[in-house]
Amino acid sequence: MAGMTPEFSRPFRLDELGTAPRNVAIEADEAERAALAKRFGLISVDSLSAKADLTREGDIVLATGSLAAEVMQACVASGDPVPATVREGFALRFVPARADQADQNADEVELEEGDLDEIEYERSAIDLGEAAAQTLALALDPFPRAPGADERLREAGVIGEEDAGPFAALKALKDRI
């Protein structure tokens, strides 16, 4: 990923951030949403925006906020479109990328936010857009199902978990009665 510009890049330079929270809002345009849909294997990304407070503590930047997105996924069974609404809060900790990870803890400021997701950044800026894209990807249902997908699978001869196993024969007998 090094050297590659993300589809939805919204860099914020460290020298523009301070210890007081800076409230920012970002939104992906049509071309960025199309590129993200392709990257994540989605039919479409109809909207993607995030709001965050950015606070700098030395080389570390904390970003707390929320993500909102409307996407169209493909059903894993039928390929039919499955709309999904994502409303996700996030707490991220941007830390400088280090060549030697062993030295990382030596000068690290101890923070209470032990459960924050950590994202490394290079040079002198964090990328809130890429962080938002990754947050979206993690929030999506990995196995979206369209209404009626199970029935269509059965019609196609694909058996589900309830149709396999020791009780399937009993169920088949019961269904015939």
Fold blueprint:
Layout: E1 11-13, E2 22-27, H1 30-40, E3 44-57, E4 60-74, E5 81-96, E6 117-121, E7 125-127, H2 128-139, H3 149-155, H4 168-176
Q: Helix-strand pattern, N to C?
A: EEHEEEEEHHH
Largest sheet: 5 strands, mixed
How much of the sequence is in beta strands?
Answer: 35-45%
> What's the β-strand tally?
7
Oligomer: single chain
Based on CA inertia axes, which overall geometry fits? elongated
Number of helices: 4
Q: Helicity, in percent?
A: 10-25%
Strand order of the largest sheet: 2-3-4-5-6
Low-confidence spans? 102-111
Overall average pLDDT: 85
Domain module count: 2
Class inferred from helices and paired strands: alpha+beta
Radius of gyration: 22 Å
How far apart the termini lie comes to: 60 Å
Descriptive notes:
With 177 residues, the chain is α+β, with helices and mostly antiparallel strands. The protein folds into two domains: 11-146, no CATH class; 148-177, no CATH class. Helices cover 22% and strands 35% of the residues. The protein is built from four helices and seven strands; from the N terminus they run E-E-H-E-E-E-E-E-H-H-H. It has helices at residues 30-40, 128-139, 149-155, 168-176, and strands at residues 11-13, 22-27, 44-57, 60-74, 81-96, 117-121, 125-127. The strands form two sheets. A five-stranded mixed beta sheet has the order 2-3-4-5-6, covered by helices on one side. A two-stranded antiparallel ribbon has the order 1-7. A hairpin with a 2-residue loop joins strand 3 (44-57) and strand 4 (60-74). The chain is elongated, with a radius of gyration of 22 Å. Mean pLDDT is 85; it is low at 102-111.
